[in-house]
Amino acid sequence: MQRRTILKSLALLPAVKDLAAAPAPPAIIKRAVPDDFAPLPVIVPDQISVPATGFFSPEQFVALRHLTGILVPPSKESPGALDADVPAFLDFLIGESPDDRQRLYLDGLDRLNAEARRQYSRGFAELQPSQADELLAPLAQPWTYEMPADRFARFLRAAKEDVIMATVNSRQRLAVESKRRGSRVGVEGYWRSIE
Questions:
Q1: Separation of alpha carbons 118 and 121, rounded Å
Q2: pLDDT in tens, 128-154
Q3: Distance CA 169, CA 96 (A)
Q4: Would you kindly state where each structural domain of the chain is located, as residue ranges?
Q5: Stretch (H or E) spanning 102
Q6: How far, in Å, CA of 84 to CA of 120, rounded?
Q7: Confidence of residue 12 (pLDDT cuts 50, 70, 90)
Q8: pTM for the full predicted model
């Protein structure tokens, strides 16, 4: 066994010799920061611009984002829908869904914005929580097996179910659950958006 180790070492000698003869890497030059240097302010892009979307229009996406934040807010124990990036997932999911599902979301988000403008003269994303609650009143109705007859109520119910499902199955939520349980069970079972 020792003879094999010695033979392997001898085979590596030419490579070690070449490494020793190689020039040293150049030294890293540190530049002095001028006294009048002012760092750039750090900003969150979503707060100053409309995020790029794939399926929904920017106005619809901002309304969807606000709706998901209301439906599943963060708690002490787990992240909310916005922490789990549910709006981006729903933008992908609904974009790949059948036409009737797409139309339900498009019409529902447009109506949400139209009702907000009619009642409060601003888009749904700009409403205070109490104002948004008035528009989301159909969600307070008792749950039944049959879908609501009203199309807007049907949209709100479908959106709520989708937001809850996407949040519960997100990577962020599963990471928190795994940490709480002290295991990694289910960590790799989350959805990933297709890039």
A1: 6
A2: 888 988 888 888 888 778 888 889 989
A3: 18
A4: 55-189
A5: helix 99-120
A6: 29
A7: low
A8: 0.65
